[in-house]
Each structure stands twice: as C-alpha cells, then as structure tokens.
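FORM 7B: Structural annotation worksheet

SECTION A. Query
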Amino acid sequence: MTSYEWYSTLKKPFFAPPSNVFGPVWGFLYLIIFVSYSYVFYLFFKKSLTVAEVAPFLLNLAFNIAFTPLQFGLKNNYLALVDIILVLITLIWGMFSIYKHSQIVFLAQIPYLLWVLFATALQISITYLNR
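SECTION B. Predicted structure
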C-alpha cells in the first residue's frame, strides 16, 4: 500500500483539508522558511547570533524534515504527533530567540506558526481517531 493509499484510509476530522491543499501551502511556507532561515544563518555566521539563538532554527528544520518519513514512510501517527509538537515548540522558541535581532524574521514566521498550529490540531485528531 502506497503512502497516499494509506493516508486516504485514515479517519480524519471534519476540518481536514483535501490532500491537494498541502502541496501549495507547504510550497509557500518553504519559501518563507528558506528566506528567513537563510537570514538567521547569515546573522549567525556574521557572529550576530549565538549558537543558543540559532539552535531552535536548526532543530526546527530537522523536525520538519523528519515529519514526512515518520508519517508516510513509517506510517506512524504517534511518532508524527510527537514530531509536529516538536516542530511547534522549536518554531515558537525560534521566534522568541530572533525577535530582538530581526522583527521581520519574527513576523515572517507567523504564517508558518499558524499552519503548524493547524497541522498539530490535525495530527492530534488523526492520531486520536485512528488509535
């Protein structure tokens, strides 16, 4: 069974968007992430940010990248749920750590934050409905 077939068999909450919404939304968000995180790493290499200030951005990337293999590769809703919560935590941590250095990067993260909040609620629901 392919990942798409597996996902389509899962019980989903009433607010789950159609599958074809995820690609365009993530495409837009990945553009924001790329531009804003590039600036964060630029500030780090310029010695304007410490390792502690850039750490949440690195962790967020790692957790973000891990979600698809956990959810669709391993087909594990529980690990995907833990992962999306870690994405959310590191995103909020990163927003707080960058605020005093770049309000533009902070503000640019708001669409990402809103989507991750939605994705977290969606994953909680999917995990609960398919326990």
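SECTION C. Observations
Residues 22-129 form one domain. Residues 85 and 98 are 20 Å apart (CA to CA).

SECTION D. Sign-off
Analyst initials: ____
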